[in-house]
Amino acid sequence: MNCLRKRLFLSDDLKSIYDTQLFKSTPITIIWFDENIDEDLNDQLQNIHDHIFITTDRPTFLDYIQTMVNEAIVVLSGAISQTVRPIIHDNKQINSIYIFCIQDSKYKYLCDVYSKINSIYTEYNLLFESLENNIKLIMKQQTSLNLFDQSGQSTQDLTRESSEFLWYQLFREYIMKMVQTNDTKKVMLEKFRLYYRTNKAYLSKIDEFEQTYTSNNAIKWYTKGTFLFKIVNKALRTQDIEVLLAVRYYVVDLCKCLKVECENFRDYYEDVIQVYRGQT
């Protein structure tokens, strides 16, 4: 959880939002380097992961590898793997390497020589399935480590936690009272586009949102399960105040719509219902 003892951002602070890296990159990126890439490959990869980097240029690939700060999975063609593999294999940010090549028998020996090579694939479907499973495993491992770190703190500072909870409630009330303007919406859309800059499908949805969104259909947009759901759900669950501030234009509408729905429900139903908290 982010430390909640932070001053509330005022309207004059909006420009400083860009310097706080509100939409933090995902823990892992799929990097695909091949001189002959299927034009539809990017769209197919976006179906299994949001953050993809595809290039056909060797210098661009090597520069990206050397400067990246997040963990990555690398996919290479067989021929290219022979020239760049020795360079990238010992990079600590690279979790694993996949080789996609029709002549799998020609490069099978590499799996025994280099520990980071996952396997060699000749079919996209099998490769995509393996990538998706690997990403899920990495995410699960990272979550387990986070939980382990938290459980290691046997003595909890209840006073601090209570203060943080109260602070968060005050922050929520604060953003609900802030005036929503076109500039607020513009800041939010710019952050969405920056975060999903490699996802054509989501960029199209963001354009649609900009053109058709109205405050009374906030719930409808949330339940679509696209870019809004992923970012807002995570920000609310982790109480990430920077992200919540950046997307407050939408969050305020969502809260108001939920309040109306709750009041309508109480007018018609008296029974207690059981609800569940999502962890997506």
General description of the model:
- With 280 residues, this protein is α/β, with parallel strands linked by helices.
- The chain has helices at residues 41-46, 58-67, 78-88, 104-107, 110-113, 124-151, 158-177, 182-195, 200-212, 218-222, 227-238, 241-246, 248-268; strands at 28-33, 52-55, 71-77, 94-100, 117-121.
- It starts with 27 loop residues before the first strand and ends in a 12-residue tail after the last helix.
What does this entry show, briefly?
55% of the residues lie in helices and 10% in strands. With 280 residues, it is α/β, with parallel strands linked by helices.
According to CATH, the fold-level topology of the largest domain is Rossmann fold
Number of distinct beta strands: 5
Proportion of beta-strand residues: 5-15%
> In angstroms, what is the radius of gyration?
22 Å
Integer tally of domains: 2
Which key features would you list for this structure?
about 280 residues; alpha/beta; Rossmann fold; 2 domains; 5-stranded parallel sheet; disordered N terminus
How are the SSEs ordered, and which strands pair?
Layout (H helix, E strand, L loop, with lengths): L27 E6 L7 H6 L5 E4 L2 H10 L3 E7 H11 L5 E7 L3 H4 L2 H4 L3 E5 L2 H28 L6 H20 L4 H14 L4 H13 L5 H5 L4 H12 L2 H6 L1 H21 L12
Parallel strand pairs: 1-2, 1-3, 3-4, 4-5
